[in-house]
Amino acid sequence: MAILVFAEHDNATLSEQTAKALSAAFLIGTDVDVLIAGHNATPAAQAAAALANVRKVLLTDDASLANQLAEPTASLILSLADGYDTIIAPATTNGKNILPRVAALLDVMQVSDVTAVVSPDTFKHPIYAGNAIEIVQATDAKKVLTIRTASFAATGTGDATAPIENIAANGENAGLSSFVENILSESDRPELNSAKIIVSGGRALGSSEKFQAVMTPVADKLGAAIGASRAAVDAGYAPNDLQVGQTGKVVAPDLYIACGISGAIQHLAGMKDSKVIVAINTDEDAPIFQVADYGIVGDLFEVLPELERQL
Ligand code: FAD
After folding, report:
1. CA angle, corner 232, sides to 220 and 198, nearest 5?
2. Electron transfer flavoprotein alpha/beta-subunit N-terminal domain spans which residues (predicted)?
3. For residue 35, which of 63, 187, 208, 231 sits 20 to 30 Å off, Cα-Cα?
4. Is pLDDT of 173 > 90?
5. Where are the beta strands (DSSP E) in 128-196?
């Protein structure tokens, strides 16, 4: 049973999401190859080759793949699909953009957001915004899976290095879409997806100025990423790439501090797998306290500055 893991990378570096998707792949089978599709992506391929137990790395280095647009990338994966029973990608923006296209072109169903591998064809994944876990058996000859990486530990580096095989881009679908621009917010903070600690703010923060003034000092002291509820994002208190939840990012840090967040199911869907949850809320009946390991009933404008002083 051969498995192809489509890697998340920025050509220069390999994302940890790939190493986590790889751990899911090894629960399905042992013959696991990694596909690096990109441009000037040799460094990412070398990083993938160093990961433990990878059979080989397929490197397709071509200008048409520099930004991993769905059409040419899916077409490349499709051209390799004959050799694999299972095709996997981390459930990142890229993975969620490309893999459904692969599944559709293969005419198979995709199993999305896999959180556990029960057997090589049976998987657990959340449905209804994480309120229920479905166990689903994929009976298609080829399985196409996206992996919720927060549920898997990253595969570490191994003693041996896997061979890197160069594969030519097949050139199909290259003109169907074109890359315009990527606007990334610059930040020295850890990435929300990989941060060990997240301090997250809700509607109670009241304005972007107060959000900055109260959240930043605590996050700085803890070396934490900052997150936000959708209400805080919609109100303009925080940029939308900070949103945690069903329609934002799904995170599972060691510590999640929810400040002035009520704990709506759509928010919980994005953070309830955090290892330790601390909630600060004036309302002792707020639903967030049902998932919190530690709850502070109090005004965040008093509690957070005090927490910063204590830290
Ligand atoms: P509120 O629910 O208004 O809660 C504010 C909390 O702050 C209250 O509990 C209050 O007691 C407390 N508070 C007030 N003042 C203070 C103070 N001074 N100190 C301490 N606590 C105080 N939401 C998300 O977060 N992420 C998503 O991805 C998301 N996706 C959604 C998708 C859909 C399809 C829908 C319908 C909704 C989605 N939502 C999402 C919205 C979600 O339902 C809630 O509306 C939202 O999470 C509420 O944000 P909040 O907790 O900041 O605000």
Report:
1. 35
2. 3-183
3. 187
4. no
5. 132-137, 143-147, 164-166
Find all residues with CB under 8 Å of 13, minimum gap 6, and list them. Answer: 43, 44, 47
In the structure encoding, which two tokens stand for residue 107, read together?
């005419």
Task: Give bridge partners of residue 130 from the DSSP assignment.
Answer: none
Amino acid symbol at 46:
Q
| Whether residue 129 has pLDDT greater than 90 | no
The C-alpha atoms of residue 102 and residue 172 are separated, in whole angstroms, by: 14
CB-based contact 44:15 (threshold 8 Å): no
| Residue 69 near ligand 1, beta carbon < 6 Å | no
* b/e 172-201 (16+ beta carbons within 10 angstroms → b): ebbeeeeeeeeeeeeeeebebbbbebbbbb
Nearest to 48 by CA among 84, 93, 17: 17
Name beta bridge partners: 124.
116, 135
Tell how far CA 29 is from the center of its chain.
22
Adjacency order of strands within the sheet including 294-297: 225-228, 197-201, 255-259, 276-281, 294-297
Probe target for ligand 1 pocket from 211, 226, 271, 281, with the most ligand atoms within 8 Å of CB: 281
Question: pLDDT tens digit string along 138-161?
Answer: 999 999 999 999 899 999 999 999
Q: How many residues does the chain have?
A: 311
